[in-house]
Amino acid sequence: MGRNRATLADVARRAGLSKTAASMVLNGREGTRLSAEAHQRVFAAAEELGYRPNVAARSLRTRKTATIAFVSDIVATTRFAGGLIRGALDAARERDHVLLITETQGDAAFEQYAIEAMLDRQVDGVIYAAMATRRLAVPPAILSGPVVLLNATSPEALPCVLPDDERAGRTVTTALLEQGHRDRIALIGRARLKERDPEVSLAAQARLRGIRDILSGAGATLLAEAFCGDWLPEHGYAAMRGLLSKPTRPSAVICMNDRLAFGAYQALGEAGLAVPTDISVVSFDDDPIATWLRPGLSTAALPHEQMGRRAVEILLDDRGTEPVLVPMPLRRRRSIATPAS
Fold first, then answer.
1. Is-above-0.70 flag for pTM?
2. Where is the HTH lacI-type domain (predicted)?
């Protein structure tokens, strides 16, 4: 038989105080007139006895369970976006909260079941996360309590945390201008569906706005824009080959994500051209592949850990409904240089 769990009464008895006094000390409630020495006796007794508060009983009094639901589509099993969960876990732990995580894989029936199961556990709030930055429909069941959208927006006026894709577009374009690129910058990754449908993507239009804003301010325009069916390596490869077939070769290429850049690198290599000696390349996301490319790819990183952390902070601190945009820092590697003469 194991030892019985120590109770509040045991702690009070060991400290030589009433149960009420011991409870007030352990819960940090103001108004106690106990001496500092009495406080120390209570904490020492709790440590010696291995006392742990009864969370269920405390939640009945405070209506708080110190738990947060994290509901996602495919974030949990996606290596690239696992930072969303890591950041949320770290922030929750620092605030003495536990994160309950479920992934729906886009199954509406299971999502309803999972949400109801978490709400039955009286979570203090819900973080509703998406793998791709997009607008989504929020299940009505979670709207009865605190909700923060992570990497997503919705028609409802809910607080949300997003990467600052428009600012990232400005950042990568500025990096090229600072190296002397101006009139021969091309863009790979135009995609009408991503740019026009916010339920597919919010990133595409925002990144494009940032790129054009900086170029316009510099009195420049894109040399060429390559449309792609999707942001995958094979589309980047085909787009780069198309750009190289034009009369004027770009001095630099902005790719809308790192997978497109990976394909562009392969096309350049097959053409006997080197990055960045012949053509500079810059991109978005900081996918792990960016560090493995040779030379390393300069890219604006998705700040997933910071986003997950901010979502927890907003949820617990009730910071209003204004969108929070988290900066995407430029990871400067060796894919950008001054234009070849």
1. yes
2. 6-62
